Structures are given as C-alpha cells and as structure tokens.
Amino acid sequence: MWAGGGLAEALRWEAEARRWQVQAQRLDGDNVALRARVAALDGENVALRARVAELEGQLAAVQETAATLARRLFGDSSEQCPKQPGGRPQPQGEPGSAEADGGDGDGGGAGGARASGRRRGRGQQPGSRGHGRRDYSHLPVEEVVHEPDPETLVCPACGAGYAAFGEETCEQVDWQVVLRRVVHRRPTYRRGCGCDEAKGVVAAPPPPKPIPKGRFTSGFIARLLVAKFGYGLPVHRVVGLLASEGASFAPGALCGVLEATAGLLAPLAAAIAERNAQGSHLHIDETSWKVFEPLAGKANNRWWCWVFVGADTTVFAVKPGRGASVVAEHLGIDLDADTPALPDGRALVVSSDFYTPYQRLGRDVEGVANAWCWAHMRRYFLRAGQAHADLAQWTADWLERIGGLFTAHRAWALAPAGSAAEAAASQTVAAAVARIDTARHAQAADAGLAPAAAKVLATLGREWGGLVAFLEQRGVPLDNNSAERALRGPVVARKNCYGSGAHWSAKLAADAWTILATAAQHGLNPTVWLGAYLDACAAAGGKPPPPATLAGFLPWTADAATLTAWQHTPGGPSP
After folding, report:
1. Is the whole model's pTM more than 0.90, yes or no?
2. Are 465 and 404 part of one and the same domain?
3. Tens-place pLDDT, residues 261-313
4. Count of domains for the chain
5. CB contact at 8 A, 302 and 265
6. Do both 531 and 441 map to the same domain?
C-alpha cells in the first residue's frame, strides 16, 4: 500500500511519462513530415538543376546564334579556319577547294602551301607556268591603217622618197553594242496577163517571228533572257542599258515580251527536267523566293526556289512550299502510296543538307539514299568555335580532321579507276573516316564536354550514316556545294528584283534558269543557243517547235557540228 507521499510521486511520474509519450508521438509525426519535405526538396532540387542545365544549353545556343548572326552582319563571308595557338593560321579555303585541300589547283593533292604551313595565295602562283594571253582571233576584224606624215617620207637632205618596208602591228579589243532596225522589204509583183490561173499579186512571205506580230528578233529576245535571268538584271536596269545605247523602251513592253516567251521555253525546260529526274545522283537545295501575286490558301508571299543538279542537267523549280512533296513531284514519287518508291525501281543518291524533307525521302522512299554534306557538318564545328572562345582548340582539331578527309577524298576522286593510286587513296579515305569516328566516340563519352560541343557531336553521331554514304560510291562528292553554287544566280536576282510579280513570271524564271544552267554545263553560248531555239519557234509559227525539232536542241542529243556552232559564233559573245 502506497504511502501518501509515494502515491503522489508515482502519479507525477506517470503523468510525466504520458506527456513524453505524447511529445514523442508528435515528434515522430513531425519527423515524418520533415522527411517528406526533404524528399520533396530533393525532387525540386533535381528539377531545378535540370532546369538550370536546360537554360545553360539555351543560353549557349543563343550565344552561338548571336555570334553567327554578328559574323554574317559584320564579318567576312568566307568560312576560314581559326588561328592555331601561337597565331599561325591554318590553311584556309572552302572544303573541297584547291586551297582547303592544299592542292595547287591542278589536282596536285596535299602539297605546296599545306606542306610548308603557308596559306596558298589566290590566282597565278609564283613559278608556275602561265597560260599567256587569251586568243581573240575569232572576233570580227576591223583594220585601221595609220600612215605617217607625208613630209616624214622624204629625205630632208636629198629629197629622195622612202620605200615601203614591211609594217608594224598592234591589236586592241573594242566593245560596241549595236541596236538597229531590221527593215524587211517585200517587193510585190502583179500579173502581166489575164489568165485566171495566175495570182493577181505575188510577194515573198513575211519573215518568221518568235512572237507573232512582235517587233523583236530572236537575238534580241535571247539577249533579254540572258541579261535578266543569266546576270540577274531587273527589267528597269535593262531598260537603262538600252537607253544608254540610244534606244528607249518601256519596261512594260519588255515584260510583255518575257510573258509571250514563257510558253516557248516551257517545253525545252520540261525536257531538261525529265532527263534530270532520271539521274542516279542529284544535288538538291532550296532558298527563299518571293512571289507577289496572292495564292489561294497561302497567307504570305514567301515561296521557295529549288534546284536539282545532275550530271548533265540542272533544274530549277519555284514552288509555294518547302516540303518533301516538291522533290517527290520532280522525281515522280507518290508519297501517299503504301510503299513510296522511285519509278521503275531506280536507285538515287541525294546530296543535300540535313533538312527534314530530305530526311523523309531517305527514310520513307525505297531506292533513295542520303549523302549528307560535310561542308555543312564542318560549319557546325566552325560556328561552335566562333561562339565559344574556350572551344577554339577543339574546333581547330576537328577542322583539321575534316580537312584531312577532303584532301584524301580529292586524291581518291582524281585517281584513275582501278589503278594502284586509286586503291591507296581509298585506304587513306577509310583511315580519315576512322580517325573521325574514333574521335567522336571518345569525346561523346566525356561527361565534362561543353554543351555546345556535345550538341555538335550529337548531330555528327545522328547523321553519321549519311555522312559516310560516299564510301559506297566513288563518284559521290563530300559536299553539296554544286547545288549551293547553282543557287547563286537566283540569289543575285533576289537581291536585285526582290522576286516575281506574278505566277507566270515565277515559272518563267525557273524555266530560264534551268535552260541557262544546263547550257553552261555543256559549255554552250547561251545567247547563240537560245537565239537558234527561238528561230525554230519562229519557223513553227511562233509556237514551240515539234518534238523532232526540239530534240535537236537538247545538248545531249545534238550532233557535234551543231554543238560547235552553239558554243561559238564569229562576232557573237564568248561562251
């Protein structure tokens, strides 16, 4: 039995124990809540770290874009290699060019400037064999005789005359533009008898004209087409040039001539496009082009100028869209089929950049293989180094690897097929590819690699299959520079005339570029060739010539004598 004091003490300790039990339970609850809070904070911390990494990546991309835009706006246009540590510049030049390959411009391979560590200069190289003066003997000749003063032909002492003794000659090249009216006179004759079988009046038929009732000859129209679409001159500048030679024309009159000519050129351009679409290898690219006539269903006037460069043809197309359907239309591919494929089961290698429509063609269409452009891939490395100073050496190393690949590939392309040099060059190319492959795998595994560098290497890895597709076909180049060079003409025209004012003029521009670019591939004089073709249109009554006649104007079917006549005509422009 508890004593009075002991019972009170026991009750106090029991109450104290219960209080601590309640406190412990509360603390346990708080501990659970705090643990949950800590776990939530850890999750938020991970998310914040991921967000910080994402923002750092976006910042790096923005910095790279800003550096690229600033370079485009304020820097030079060449993609030169950066300087190596120590200030010595690496060999410079565009990938695939003689400068970038270290060659001498004659297919000499790696030597000269690259071997000595010096940049190869432009133009004629010291010590190399010159080509001498150009030959202009095919031009018309106008002889001017300069006789000395008669007083100098008499001896001042005895008065005896001088005798002729040979001559001295020198030559000048004159430039004259002659605009003239060609007046066709057709004498008429009336009959001198009363026979009913005889015609009352006889006259020669009127001269054929490419544009019925038009005032311009085939030569004039050919020169107008070459000036506008070959050299990118707007019509108002052509009007100014003609005015400086004494002939005043309204711009609307020349535009009317171009519109009337559009139907004459269309069949010739279509024949070129048909042959181009049947090729086994095409360079394809596109650039923006504006058409200022509204199109139903299109919200703006931004169209696209496409180019397809084949072995012996070049085709342009101005289309309102930029999707794979444009290429499919040109190649005759039905993208809506269950298994899209090239007609007749053909195979095609497409050299291009990494744009999505080309990706789709190589992925979805049977027979189409992508060969990605190494010049574009090189550009990604170059821009990363330009935007991030800490990647300068990394960029220089990669440009050196890619430059080595271009050098090896050039030697491979120039080596005779089946020769020992070709076999050795093939091994060198394979070694250059293996070197790049090893470096990309090693650097991609580096967790400390800068985000900008990792992004470029991710692109290299993702597109690796198309970048090495050239190994399977010797004739496939490393870059898509052929298509980019072909687009320079339209780009110049875009800067000068902003685009096309109507749908028909956009179609005419594409057809004219197609015809002129194909003529250039065959070394033809475009003015002479177009003039002859328009003469054939005139003979057909101001319409496109019949198929048999049209076939004779295709460079790949014309006979050698006709090609020679088109390449050069005495007194005409140089090819």
Report:
1. no
2. yes
3. 999 999 999 999 999 999 999 999 999 999 999 999 999 999 999 999 999 99
4. 2
5. no
6. no
